[in-house]
Structure formats: structure tokens, C-alpha cells
Amino acid sequence: MAELPNISVASASRIRRGWRLFLFYSSAVLLTGLVSMLFADLLWRTGWSASRTVLMALFVILFLLSAIGCMHGVYGFLIRIFGTHRRITGLKDFRGQNISGVSTAIIFPVYNEDAVRVYEGLRATYESLAKTGQLEGFDFFILSDSTNPDKWVEEERRWHDLVRDLDALGKIYYRRRLFNEERKSGNVRDFLNTWGRRYRYFICCDADSVMRGETLVDLVKLMEAHPTVGLIQTVPALVNAESLFGRIQQFANRLYAPVFIAGLNYWALDLGNYWGHNAIIRTEPFMQFCDLPQLPGRKPFGGQILSHDFVEAALMLRANWEVWLAYDLEGSYEEAPPALIENAQRERRWCQGNLQHSLVLFAKGLRGVSRLHLLLGIFGYLAGPLWLAFLLVFNWIYWYQKFTGLSDIPVQAFNPYLANWSGTAHALLIFVICMVVIMLPKLLSLIDLARDWPRRAAFGGLAHATVGVLGETIFSTLHAPLLMLWHTRFVLTNIAGITVGWTAQKRGADGTSWLYAAQRHWGHTLIGVVWGAFMWRLGTTLFWWFTPVLAGMVFSIPLSVLTSRRSLGLRARSLGIFLTPEETQPPVEIVSLRSRMRIHELTGDKTPPRVHAGLAEAVLDPYVNAIHVSLLREKQLNPTYAEQFTRLGAGSEGVRALGEKLLTEGPEKLRPPERMSVMADQRVMVWLHQQAWLRPEEKLAPWWKAMIREFSQRD
């Protein structure tokens, strides 16, 4: 008998991945085909037309997207039941890996963020890492892109305080860029160009990230044990939510994500994706292969790539480096927006970034799975406009049928089992199938929870978790029409050429005011009322069928306000609803973060700061001035920044003249770029400190006189 040809491990892996991809997406396509035939049969029974052709096409696309989501839940559930998957925590060979001498940078890119929250998150991560005994191999970096002078000064002051508290000189660094080019990806690239070759790996965090020390060490050990891996993405758990909206999102993330992500990992395997933070990256291949291209054409589609993470993962895979999803590695945390409006603002940025991927989709050399990741991201935002189009086309068909006076010509169904069914019963069957497809992953997540007693207890018990799922489902039903309208507007504004600005994310839980909610949601309410009146005129039966869609629009203002309330979130927690493991069994890192944030909340100054208070502090306070000037001097010693200082005009007579104007006329007389130029010149800042204290009052602007008196009265 002839010998069988040898099949390499890589070939076997490709074959296995191919079969998994085929099986997974064939299941979604098969389900879509069967239900689409039922829907086509229903349309045929009521008389085919051009508008029904459009409706049919929209239904196929929307149901396929829902079926893919459902398959993630189904396959993830089966995998968690039978364990036929690669578990990161099951890779025994990495635990004993020696990582002495391995250098890793942990970076925190920030942009006008809450400095207290950023530094306390870094402190919790640092202290947790110190307990592992592996701190020597890690360095921390605050990479600031802040354009607010007050934020700049506060970041420097709190950096110095943190280094002093932790005795971490030479372990925690602060760097602020002079020019905020290419946003976060440019910030990371600037760091890598300057510092990257000192580190074998870097771990990219977000401004609100917290990571367990053991998790950081495990990530490095995994990379060391698997030299073909270029990136390992953890699955961050949402924590610290206090508003009702935040707690609902946090609960859904913690309950549903294990099943969904297991399903994603089933077909992605070592061709995973990158979500931009809480991931470890091999520095050298990232620097070599993941430099982002400028997209052709004008903004918003052309120019700089906003959602850089998907593209960077695709470029890493194109260079034959593996990207893993460490979906069962605990100890990675982040926070969520506190309210509907803040969540929509984040969605606006993500929408433009994902739509840009349509220009990357057919880039030369990308792996097929990378194109699939990009395509799913694009349709994540196109689904809203497509759903709206489906509803409008359906309304048009119903209106046209009623007001043209044309009668239905009943036709027998293709399916013999539905031959004796009425059109209403046929439509109800399709509706029930669609609801099952949408709801099945949530039910499977509950069953998965019921199997695991320790995890079930961490959610407050199965009964409380079930109530939470029902509450989350009701909220999602009301929220979905708002997302539909928001995503439609985002897509249309992008097509119209309107780009999104770069603003800091609102991460606090102050609550949405009624006036602000009315300003943001009046359009949703108006659409809901007008659409509802139109539906009522078409037919009361149709109106009641559309009630879930209309209710979210009509009640968008109270929904937005009430779900933003911290008091309602705390009330739900006291009732045991929407509990998560990080609340019932909080890890040390989260306890430390919460306690220190609580101290800041209780002891912090409640009076709003004066305008330009940070600038005044950097000039008047000798301690803060010394920190600021020393950091500027250190930066100017780096040849990499010489050109940037020249572009900024630092050290020129023009900046000195701006400093004189600042003293004699006040900061409000300088434009923001001029104030930043003054603050970036270490000689001018030293001179300003001297002049502010030595000059007679009559030679200073009234603003400076008030600030000096206020500063002199401090204890």
C-alpha cells in the first residue's frame, strides 16, 4: 500500500480552520436560506412586486447577520459544554516559562481624560504586578495627547506624586507629545519610534483599563512560549458601573460574553482580532508591519484610519504572525459609558472608523479571515440603516395595498405544510423564528450559568440572573430603535462627507439632565409620534405589532434620563439585579481602585476650578513649575523631538513675546495654540515663574493679581 503523504502541522491547522469556518458559516447560511424561503413564500402569497423584491433582499441580509450572531451563541455554548476548543488557561506549557530578562512596556495613551481615574487605575495595576515578584521586567508609560493645558499640568503633577508614593522612579514614565498627529495610533507609533526597541513586548491599555498582575505575567509567558504569536487580545470585563444603563451593559457583558466569545474563537482560532486595548503585542513585527496607510480620497472615508485596531491585526496576520483571543484569561478590566447619549457618541467614532474599512477590505495580501472581521465590523453599523429601510419598505407596501384599493389575490403556498395556513399565521411563524434566533443566545447563556455553581453564585443566583436577563431584554428592545436611528444618521453623515471630531470620552456617572436629553432625543420622539400616527391610520393591528419599535422612540427622553441615574443603578444592585462577579466577589485590583476613587471623591475640592487654573499653577507653584520644566528639559535632550520643537517655535523670540503678553494681558488674550507654545518652552516657563512673583502688581494683568492672591492664601 502506498504511503500517505506527510501533512505538516501548519497544513493540518489550516485544514481544521477551514472546516470550522465552513461549518460555522454554512450553519448561518443554511438557517438563513430556510427562513428566507418561508418569507419569500409569504410575499408570493400576497402578490409579488418590485417593492417586495427589495424587502426580500433586505430580509436576507438582516436575517443572515442575526443568524451569524445566533451561531456564535450556539457554537460557543456547545464548546463550553463539551470542551472541544483551545483554552488559553489549558496551555500548561506556558506556566513554567522563565521571563527573567524579558522587557515589557505597559502603555496608557490618554487624551484630556480624568487624570485621577487614569493614575489610580495605573496604581492598582502596578501594585498588583508588584505582588507577583515580576515587576522588574515591566515599565509603565503615560502617553499624553492632551490639548487642555489644565489637563497637561494635572497629569504631570499626579505623575510625580504617583512615582513618589510608589517609589517608582525609573519604572513609571510620563510623555506628552507636542503634536497630536494620527490620534491614538499616532501616539502609540511615536512611543514605539522613540522607546520601542528597548522592549520585546508592549501591552496597550486604555485610559480606564485595569489589569491583574498575574494576567500581565501570563501574557508575557504565553508570548515567550509561542514565538509565532504576534498579538494576544484579552476580553476586558466591564466594571465599576453605577448608573442603571452602565449596570445593564456591564451585566450583559459579563453574562453573554463567555458564550459569544467562545463561539468567535471557534472559527477565528489563531487568526483573531485586536480591539485596541488590554492586549499584548510583539513589538518588532508590529513596528515593521503594522504602520497604518493613509486611505485615498477625502475625509471621512479617506485620510487617517480611525479604527486602527482591526487593520493592525489584519496587517499582523498578513505578515504571517498569529493573533490569539485569550477569551478565558481573567483579570482584564475596563469601564463603559454611563448613559445612552455618551454611548452613542462613542458609537459615532466607531461607525466612521468601521466604514473606512470598506476601503481596506480589498487591500492586497490580506487574509480571508481578516476581510471577514472587517466585513462584520462594517455591517455592525450598516445593520441599522438596513433595518430602517426594511421597515419603511414594509410600510410602503402596506400603504400602497390599502390606499390603491387593490385587493389581495390569494395564492397557495409553495410549502405544502403551510397550504392551509392563513397569511397572518404564516407571518407569525416567521416572527417567532426571528425572535428565537435573537433570544436563543441569551437563553443558552443562562443555561451555561446554571451549570456552573460558583459562577452562578457570583451573579447573585440563577433567579436574580434570570430577572436581569428579562430586564436587559426589555431595555435592549427599547434601545434598539434608537441605535437604528443613530446608526442611520451616522452612516448618512459620513456619506455626506461630515467627519467626526476627536473629543475626550465622558466616563463619569453624573446623570443626564432632562433638558440635555430633550435636546438630544427630540428628533427620536418626533419620529416615533409621527410614525405611530401613520401606523394607526394604516391599521390598529399593524400599530400594535410595531409598538416595541415605536415605544423606544416615543419614550427616548425618559429612557435616557432614568437609565443614566446612579440612584436607580444602586437600587437595582440592592435588589440583587444586574449583579456581576466583580461586584459580588471583587478582585483586589478593583477594590483598591474603588476605595481610592472614593477617597478622592470625599476629600477632593468640590469647587469648580478657575479657567486656566492649570496654567496658573504651572507658573506660580514652584513645585509644579519645577516638575513641568524638568520634563520639558528632558524632552529637549531627545533628538527625536528636535524637529517638533522647531515646528512649535520653542526657544524663539516669538514665544518670549507671547509670554510677555500672557503676563500683561492675561491668558484669555492668547489663542489656545499660543498658550500651548508658551507652556512647551522651558526657558519661558522659568522666566514666567520669576516674573509673576517679582513684578509689581501694576505690570500684571488683573487675572494674575487674583491668582497670586488666591495662591498666597493657600495653607
Polypeptide structure, described:
With 715 residues, the protein is α/β, with parallel strands linked by helices. Helices cover 63% and strands 6% of the residues. The strands form two sheets. The chain has a seven-stranded mixed sheet, sandwiched between helices. Helix 2 crosses helix 7 (244-268) and helix 7 (244-268) crosses helix 14.
Which key features would you list for this structure?
715 residues, alpha/beta, seven-stranded mixed β-sheet, three-stranded mixed β-sheet, 28 helices
- Largest sheet, spatial ordering of strands: 3-2-1-4-8-6-9
Give the averaged pLDDT, no decimals. 89
3D shape: globular
Radius of gyration (Å):
29 Å
Secondary-structure blueprint of this entry?
Blueprint: H1 9-45, H2 50-82, E1 104-110, H3 115-130, E2 138-144, H4 149-166, E3 172-176, H5 183-195, E4 201-204, E5 210-211, H6 213-225, E6 229-234, E7 237-238, H7 244-268, E8 279-282, H8 283-289, H9 308-318, E9 322-326, E10 332-334, H10 340-360, H11 368-403, H12 423-451, H13 453-458, H14 462-495, H15 514-538, H16 540-545, H17 547-554, H18 556-563, H19 566-574, H20 581-584, H21 588-603, H22 613-620, H23 622-636, H24 642-648, H25 653-665, H26 672-679, H27 682-694, H28 702-712
Parallel strand pairs: 1-2, 1-4, 2-3, 6-9, 7-10
Antiparallel strand pairs: 4-8, 5-10, 6-8
Helix pairs in contact: 1-2, 1-12, 2-7, 2-11, 2-12, 3-4, 3-6, 3-21, 4-22, 4-23, 7-12, 7-14, 7-19, 9-11, 10-11, 10-14, 11-14, 12-14, 14-17, 15-17, 15-18, 22-23, 23-27, 25-26, 25-27
